[in-house]
Amino acid sequence: MPPKEIQSTEFKINIMKKGIHPETYRLVAFKDMSNEQVFISRSAAPAKETIEVDGVEYPVIKLEVSSYSHPFYTGKMKFVDTAGRVDKFRNKYKAHLDKK
Prior knowledge:
This protein has helices at about 70-75, 85-90, 95-100; strands spanning about 5, 10-15, 25-30, 40-45, 50-55, 55-65.
């Protein structure tokens, strides 16, 4: 069932269902591991590590790709290979790739 909408003369307000959303939102640092960029946002996701940003300590959640490194947002093509996927692909299809 979609959230209820309240019409007002100035704006529309969405009312969320009660009891299904986390209550523990807090400021969290998200760190893009491919380029070391850090940004602060609110999250309820658990974090084991902390990081200091501008003199304030935040829980940190590490990301492999974010808008700072994704080709759609950067306009640059870049291989992000954290698990050897590109090498595994090249080895699997080496004979086919060598023919071209």
